[in-house]
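Hi Y.,

Following your request, here is the sequence exactly as I used it, all 179 residues.
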Amino acid sequence: MKSKRKVMNMTLVTMLLAISVFIHMIEPAVPLGIPGVKFGLANTIGLITLELFDAKTMLRVNLMRVLISTLLRGIIFGVGFWLSLFGVILSSLAVILFSKTTKLSPIGLSVASATFHNIGQILALILINKIWAMIYYLPFLLITGIPTGILTGYIVMLVLSRLKKTGLVIRLKGNTSQA
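Below is the corresponding structure, written out as C-alpha cells. Let me know if you'd prefer a different format.
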C-alpha cells in the first residue's frame, strides 16, 4: 500500500509540474501591454503544490518549471532564465516563510509571491546589467503585482475548493517523503 501511495504522489507531482511548465510556456502569448508584467498563472501551481504537499515539493516543482521551460524555449542560462530563476527562488522562499509564520489566505500568499518575484527579477537585472537604475522600475512592478497576485490567489482558492469538494485529491501533507 505504501508503494501505491508513493506512485500516486509522484504522479500527481509530475502532473502539477507538467501543468506549470505548460502555463509558463503559453503565458507570454497573453500580453498585458506593460513591459515585464505577466499574470503569473504558473505560480498558481506552486501554491496548489504547497497546499497539497509541502514546501520542499513546491520548491522542487517551481525550480523544475523554470529549468524545463527555459530548456524548451532554448534560452537556458540566458537573461530570461536568470530573471525567472531569481524571481521563483525569492517568491518561493517568501511564500514558505509566510505560510509557516502567518495565517495568510492563498490570496495573501499569492500577492506576497508576486511581490517577491518582482523583487527577485529586479535584483537579477541589476546583477546582470550592473545598472542600479533598474530599481526605479520596482515600484511600478510592485503595484501591478497586487492585482495579478489577487487574481492568481483567487484562482488557487477556486481550484483548492473544487479539489476538496470532489474528493479526488486528499490532503497529502506529511506524505511528501514519498513524492
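Residues 173-179 have pLDDT under 50 and may be disordered.

Thanks again,
Q.
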